[in-house]
Every structure is written in structure tokens, then in C-alpha cells.
Amino acid sequence: MCQLLGMNANTPTDVMFSFTGLATRAAEHQDGFGIAFFEDRGLRHFIDPVSALHSPVAEMVRRYPIRSEVVIAHIRKATVGEVALQNCHPFVRELWGRYWVFAHNGDLKDYAPRLHGAYRPVGGTDSERAFCWLMQELAKAHASVPSVDELSCTLRELLPQPAAHGTFNMLLSNGQALWAHGTSQLYSVERRHPFVTTRLADEDLSIDFAAHTTPQDRVALVATQPLTRDEDWQAFAPGELRVFRQGQRAP
Amino acid sequence: MCQLLGMNANTPTDVMFSFTGLATRAAEHQDGFGIAFFEDRGLRHFIDPVSALHSPVAEMVRRYPIRSEVVIAHIRKATVGEVALQNCHPFVRELWGRYWVFAHNGDLKDYAPRLHGAYRPVGGTDSERAFCWLMQELAKAHASVPSVDELSCTLRELLPQPAAHGTFNMLLSNGQALWAHGTSQLYSVERRHPFVTTRLADEDLSIDFAAHTTPQDRVALVATQPLTRDEDWQAFAPGELRVFRQGQRAP
């Protein structure tokens, strides 16, 4: 199964991702990985259609302390679409002068939305098809740049449509907020300073919040599975959308 | 001044880029770099708004033999737009289910094209503005996916418009072809197997074509300055557009 991981912090935070745990699950997650970091409006986007165990890109991400407010990561076990660079999550498009990043866990059956707008899939996954449809519908729903609250309202209306075709755990961000939608398996937790004393650890993924955080710092995490045992990871209800801004869940 | 480098090969070719020469010109090219590799329809896009001398991303690109048919690289000396991730070339957008990559060398004065389509700049550069306008006009000019020849015709009509505002040396690709347009300083050369015996070398950039090439292999290179002294680098005439496919210049 694919693994999703999202992070939203209230201040650009040094984050280092470790994929070393993947060594133990190479057979299961050998079909690539991807990670996107927002820095203000800018975006770093790293993908590689090989196991994170052997990828020089994963090795670089592991060592580079990137200061980011929103991160979306994905580790892929191919189900729909061949193993190829164009099928690696997360996917990126531009809308209203901001980059949008999307990653999906799950399968959509018989999902062929009408794509008549400016967004077309490059690869062959149901996930990218859903992303293009979401971008198209967001663009149609708002004449000019909407607020995060307005975007959340629109997404709440749109997300049930792809979700009706199967499993649709997904992460979406434009750098201003992190939208997380769960249908079968997704958890979130909110954490505060000091992060450095508790390093998240998991077989597959770990995040190391570097030092230099301040008492005001907050961070929210979303993941396919809880990454720690001693924190209050909240499971998503089926079809639930959560919005994270400034390192915490928005009402 | 910024440096452009483009490559088009007739078969996915192991290419390694070296930015080590930048150490000697750190003061001049400290404002970041970027490089994009097409692999079939997929794209790897690496940018970093710091000197390639200190960038872990540059270090990774230098060591990773990526097999690619089209590469576009850019080393930035900021003129318009702050030094930030969102202002790093090359820029990427999607059109007709393919990624498009664009890098620009030069300045455009008083350039404010009407952007009423689906493409908006994320950063503050005149370059990204020109790219968004080109994408918008390409989308308007063709009802469905055009051939490379049709695209070349349309580009030949469009490119003089931004170029009228200043210097517009640029590289553009959708993975099928490499379009290169020069107004002041751009050169191209075509090379054939065996590449391994002649390593391109320059103070700023070098490309190492790894072994395992075959006698059928061809590659075309486009650069701001000739990268070698003993080859026949052909200067672009002002306003000239050259199209490269399958490792050679198309008629």
C-alpha cells in the first residue's frame, strides 16, 4: 500500500525526512517515492521511480535540511499505471499563480471524469486524473482567487465525487494550507515546541525537526499510519476533510 | 549573466552535469540554478536558489547518471525578481497532457502581456511571465494536440512578441523536441557517437556523456557560449528559432 505523509508548520521549519526504514520493506514499496516542499510560493519537487533505498534523490533529501511550511510526501506501491517517472506522486499543477501539490493513496474504479479544462494527466494513474479534475473544478468554481475558507467549502463539495469511485485518502496543498481527506486510513496529530526532544520514528518514514524551533512553533502531521505510539493521532472518519493552517487544524 | 544549456539526444542518454566550475565564479552566479530532465513523458525538475557550489541538489545532480532525451539547465544571475525559489529557472507547466519546460536568458523591458488564460506566474520574473504567455497562446492556437512542426510554426509567430521587449534567448521543450530561440547570444552544435572520448568542458558547466553509447547515437547541444573550442558551434542569428529532434536540428 502507498504511504502518505503531510506536514504543515506555522513557521518555515527545518525538516529532514528519512527513508532508511524503507530498506526493510523494499519489496513492498519499490515503485518510487516523491516529496514536495513549499517555501513561500516556491516549490521543491523530488520524485524517483525507484526504491528510496537506492535513489540518490532520496539520499539527498535525507541530508538536506529544507525549511518549509508545507510538505507532502508519498511512497508508491504501483496498482494503477506503470512504474514510470510520470506516475510518481506528488503531482504538481499551477492555478491562480500558485503551485498545487497532490498525493493520493487508494484506488478509484471506473473513474473517467470529463476533463474539458486546462488540466490533463501526463501519466496513466487514476490519481493524476482525479487531481486534474479537482483543479479544473476549482478553477470553474471561483472567478478570482478565493480564500482558504472558500477553497475548503468548494473542496468539501467536490471530494465526494472521486471518493465515490473507491478509496480516496489524499493530501492537497497550495502552500497556504494543507487539505487532507480520508476515506479508509488517515491520521493526524498536532504538535508543539520543543520538537527536537521527540523524534518521530516509523519503519517507513521518519521526520527529524531540527533544533532552532521557538516556543511559538506548531506543526501538524497527517499520515497513513500513526508515526508514534505515545501521541494522540486522530483517525479520520470516512469522507472527512481536515484543513491545516499555521501548524494547526482549522475549525 | 545567466547561462543556458540545452541537450537533445535521439536515445535516452546517461548525462551527468558538473557545476564544479562554478566555484570559480561564485560571485557572478550565486543566485541559484535549475535543471530539468525529460524521461519519456515524465520530468525531473531540480532547482535551488543558492550557489551551485553549496547546493546539495547540485551535488546530487553531479553524481546521478540520469537517462534523458531532453535536458534544459539554467544558472541564474538575478536581474529582475528577487532571489527566491519561485524565481528559479527552468519553469514548468502542463499543456495537452505534457510537461513544458522553459528557461530564459535576458531582460524584457516594460513587458506586461495580457494573461487571461490558465497560466499565471508564481514568481516575479519577466521570464515566467513570457512563459505563461507562450503557453496561453499555444493553447489558444491549437484546438487539439498539434505536431512538432505545427508547434514550431506557431512558436515562430509568437516568439518575436516577447523578443521585441529586449533580450530573449530561450529554451523550451515538451519532451518531444527542443526549441531554442536566440536574440543576442546562443550557440548550438551537433555531435555523434562516440561521445565518451570528448568530454565537454567549460569554466561554468560541463557534461559528461557516460559510456554505453552506440554508433547510432546523436546529440545536439545549445548553450549561451560554446562549451568547447574544437567543435563547430553555430551562432544563432538574431531572432532565429532552431528546433532539435532526435538529437539533430530539424529542417
Search tags:
homodimer, alpha+beta, Glutamine Phosphoribosylpyrophosphate, subunit 1, domain 1, six-stranded antiparallel sheet, 14 strands, 16% helix
CATH topology call of chain A: Glutamine Phosphoribosylpyrophosphate, subunit 1, domain 1
**Count of helix runs of chain A:** 4
The major sheet of chain A is characterized as: 8 strands, antiparallel
Under the CATH scheme, which class of chain A? Alpha Beta
What is the total tally of β strands of chain A? Answer: 14
Task: Give the chain pair forming the largest contact, with residue counts.
Answer: A-B, 38 and 38 residues
* First-to-last CA distance of chain A: 30 Å
- Strand fraction of chain A equals 35-45%
Average pLDDT number of chain A: 87
CATH superfamily of chain A: Aminohydrolase, N-terminal nucleophile (Ntn) domain
**Assembly state of the chains shown:** homodimer
Structural class of chain A: alpha+beta
Order of helices and strands of chain A: EEEHEEEHHHEEEEEEEE
Give the count of structural domains of chain A. 1
